[in-house]
Specification:
Elements lengths: L6 H13 L2 E7 L3 E5 L2 E5 L2 E7 L28 H8 L3
Antiparallel strand pairs: 1-4, 2-3
């Protein structure tokens, strides 16, 4: 996050920079802190909807739209696993 920027504002900015679209930020999911041997990261996940534009992979090799059941088919970073599991089990 940049100074003075809320988590939601940071997410909107990062999505615009990395995926070339605008999102509307919805409900927050549970925050996850993951400790790697040499650093800790804190993930602040949110549900979002695309409100303008289309997703363009600017900084990613590949983007896929998948069902919740298909999330288990991907090789997620350890820090992402609790977030993916929480999302997959949402009603």
């Amino acid at each position: 996050m940049q100074p003075g920027e809320s988590p939601a504002e940071a997410l909107i900015r990062e999505i615009a920079e990395e995926l070339d679209c605008t999102v509307t930020v919805g409900a927050a999911l549970e925050t996850n802190v993951h400790r790697y041997p040499n650093l800790s990261i804190r993930l602040l996940p949110y549900l979002c909807t695309i409100s303008r534009g289309a997703v363009v992979a600017r900084e990613h090799a590949e983007i896929a739209w998948v069902t919740k059941a298909e999330l288990a088919l991907f090789d997620w970073a350890d820090a992402d696993l609790p977030v993916v599991a929480a999302y997959a089990h949402r009603p």
